[in-house]
Amino acid sequence: QLVESGGGLVQPGGSLRLSCAASTSTFSSYWIDWVRQAPGKGLEWVAIISQDGSVNYYVDSVKGRFTISRDNAKNSLYLQMNSLRAEDTAVYYCAKDWGRRMDVWGQGTTVTVSS
Amino acid sequence: ETVMTQTPLSLSVAPGQPASISCKSTQSLLYSDGKTYLSWYLQKPGQSPQLLIYEVSSRFSGVPDRFSGSGSGSDFTLKISRVEAEDVGVYYCLQGTHLRTFGQGTKLEIK
Q1: Rounded Cα–Cα distance for residues B39 and B96 (Å)
Q2: B62-101 burial, b if ≥16 CB within 10 A, otherwise e?
Q3: Are A100 and B37 inside 8 Å of each other by CB?
Q4: Which residues of A touch chain B, with CB atoms under 8 Å apart?
Q5: Residues of chain B contacting residue A61, judged by C-beta atoms under 8 Å apart
Q6: Would you call A103 and B99 a contact, using CB atoms and an 8 Å cutoff?
Q7: B44 touching A (Cβ < 8 Å)
Q8: pLDDT tens digits, chain B, 111 residues: what are they?
Q9: Banded pLDDT at A107 (limits 50, 70, 90)
């Protein structure tokens, strides 16, 4: 099971750190994704991180602003979001990436960027 | 960037009738390990997405056999043999070969 937290209302240009807690001892075995969904829109892949955190990739629209990281000792995944824009407003999901598919999803946390 | 294009964007199907959704990618999804990483998801209203099909045609645990996937290269299809009321929602394809990209989604409603 994956549980996201940390969402909220933030002003444009502000920062927010999302967390994703996993209730499994095998957390360190998986790549993990962040996926977002803007209001009334489809799913957009945001970022992915390798099992040990040494490899990560981002969608172009967040490169240089968002940082994905993980702490396997705490079974936790993070997304540090800086320089937030209105278009970053979305529900953010973490998802376990196994065999290049997302087989376990969290319930999502809502980020609203507005003044 | 690999772009995924789904058609149609919406579908209205009577219960018991079949449904089909197409997903095309701008480049082949055949990976160097010989596998093709195309998966399908259903997002029911108010819920998180759930995995239905992976590697083109393998059904995920617990997914009814009325769901099937097919295709190869850059052209894929999700079929529902007999639509039921619980199948309502938005269906997404996802390519996992070149990082990750979702299709735009196809909304399925019941007539």
Answers
A1: 8
A2: ebeeebbbebeebebbbebeebeeebebbbbbbbbbebbb
A3: yes
A4: 33, 35, 42-45, 48, 57, 60, 93, 95, 97, 99-103, 105-108
A5: none
A6: no
A7: no
A8: 999 999 999 999 999 999 999 999 999 999 999 999 999 999 999 999 999 999 999 999 999 999 999 999 999 999 999 999 999 999 999 999 999 999 999 999 999
A9: very high
Residue A56: what are its φ and ψ, rounded to 5°? -150, 155
Query: Could you give the dihedral angle defined by the CA atoms of residues A58, B8, A102 and B31, in that order, rounded to the nearest 10 degrees?
Result: -70
The percent of residues above 70 in pLDDT, for chain A, comes to 100
Phi, psi (5° rounding) for residue A72? -65, -25
